[in-house]
Amino acid sequence: MEIGVIGVGYVGLVTATCFAYLGFKVRCVDVDPDKIHNLQNGRIPIHEPGLEEILHKANKAGQVLFATDINELKNCKVIFLAVGTPPNPDGSSNLTFLTQAFDDLTNLLTQDTVIVVKSTVPVGTAKMLRERASGRDASNLLHIVSNPEFLREGNAVHDFLNPDRVVVGYESDLAKSIMKEVYAPFTSKDIPIVWTCNASAELIKYSANAYLAMRVAFINEVSDLCEQANADISEVTRGVGLDHRIGRHYLHPGPGFGGSCFPKDTLSLVHFANQRGVDAKIIKSIMPSNESRIKSLSEEMCRLFKEHGCKVIAFLGVTFKANTDDMRDSPTIPMIKALIDNGFEVMAYDPSKTEQFSQYFNIGLQNSAEEALHRADAAVIATEWSEFKLMPAELFASKLKRKILFDLRGVFSAEAFRAVGVKYRGIGRKIDA
Ligand code: UGA
Predict the structure, then answer these.
(1) What is the CB neighbour count within 10 angstroms for residue 309?
(2) What is the reported pLDDT for 230?
(3) According to the model, what pLDDT value does residue 213 have?
(4) Which of 353, 333, 148, 341 shows the shortest CA–CA distance to 259?
(5) Is 261 touching ligand 1 by the criterion CB < 6 Å?
(6) Which of 20, 30, 242, 408 could anchor a disulfide with 8, C-beta 3.0 to 4.6 Å?
(7) What is the CA angle 130-73-92, rounded to 5?
(8) Each residue of 174-187: pLDDT tens digit?
(9) Residue of minimum CA distance from atom 34 in ligand 1
(10) Would you call 46 exposed, middle or buried from its count of C-beta atoms within 10 A (0-12, 13-18, 19+)?
(11) 32 CB neighbour count, 10 Å cutoff
């Protein structure tokens, strides 16, 4: 069976490449000719560990085709829609790309075709698409499936190939049987397929992201409580997380969550609740909690550095988390902005060398962590890249003129820094800086 994919952004490209890796022939279409040209030549536009290698193999074996012409998908029985659904200013999702791709596709149908919505879309989208197609000749050939993704950036290939579950919302027996074929490599590995109606599948996606975002916001608040109680957040999360009803994941405190998914999807769920008159108090509190954390940490950082007479700050890690070059909605953006607005000179460095930095700031990135530390008075660790974890406390002690480290990810041991005379401000632990 040939699989079609429309949109080779992050989700589409990972989906297409992994299906090709699993042995399917995959045809990908995108409106961006430059992107397609690069992919035809094995160049991928995102930083995703492992993706380039398997794409290279798939390209070499002729398993994957990239094109700009949607007619290439004419004979595919199953076509994934993986176009962007960016947020509108009111928190709703902009479905222009999705409806455009859907309309183009439905105009092509000459046989029963399963159209799989892989993009993250508001609850009710499958129903809306069904209604949109209802007047058209080919409407009876159309089978809509909602198949949300649960890929973490930086782990997407692993997550795609080893999911905890696959969620498939469907509306016809034919759709179910085609999706069974598509996911046969997963059922043979005993990975559960959760068969649902379309609306449930759509809501599962938002609930999962909003719940995880809530856990992060929650543990960040507990981390603040630890500081006041002279408790240690790593001990608290271990003690709490070992309860199997709670679990240990997504309980790591940090500067606040970011990325293109948690904030957008949480806001979209709030928008849906408001639209339907549901007073979802907990869900509505997630974003304000996260925003106030980012703000209060930014303010504290500026205050601390001013008190110690710092002028130049090394800012290590600018992406929203490690192992990605993505800065979308990263808490580092308002933080760096606050430092600059308060008159500090920021020497920022990120191991991904992300090109997105220049979209937000008109200062350049440094070439290495050492270069960022070179003239700095104090340093901030904002993402948990392994490269930073390997940096010895002595390096900071020898480079930083005012010897202050603000570790927003709890990457280091406070003791190791205290031992070499660096004032260490961690999170969720006794404060000594
Ligand atoms: C998230 C979900 O985890 C994926 O399942 C989902 O498919 C994806 O969104 C999406 O909807 O496309 P992602 O945005 O890549 O994936 O990032 P996560 O690794 O989940 O982290 C999100 C944010 O929470 C980051 O800012 C991260 O630093 C923060 N975080 C996460 C913490 O601060 N503490 C934690 O313990 C975990």
Answers:
(1) 10
(2) 92
(3) 98
(4) 333
(5) yes
(6) 30
(7) 40
(8) 999 999 999 999 99
(9) 252
(10) middle
(11) 14
Q: How far is CA 27 from the centre of its chain?
A: 25
Q: Which residues are catalytic?
A: 261
- Ligand 1 pocket residue status of 352, Cβ below 6 Å: no
Task: With 0.90 as the threshold, say if the pTM is over it.
Answer: yes
Q: How far is the CA of 245 from the centre of ligand 1 (A)?
A: 21
Structure tokens at 38: 């690069």
pLDDT less than 50: residues of the chain: none
Residue nearest to atom 1 of ligand 1 (CA): 152
- At residue 134, φ and ψ (nearest 5 deg) are -60, -35
Q: How far is CA 82 from the centre of its chain?
A: 15
User: What amino acid is encoded at 129 in this protein?
Assistant: L
* Model confidence pLDDT, tens digit, residues 128-140: 999 999 888 788 9
What are the structure tokens assigned to 61, written together? Answer: 């074996």
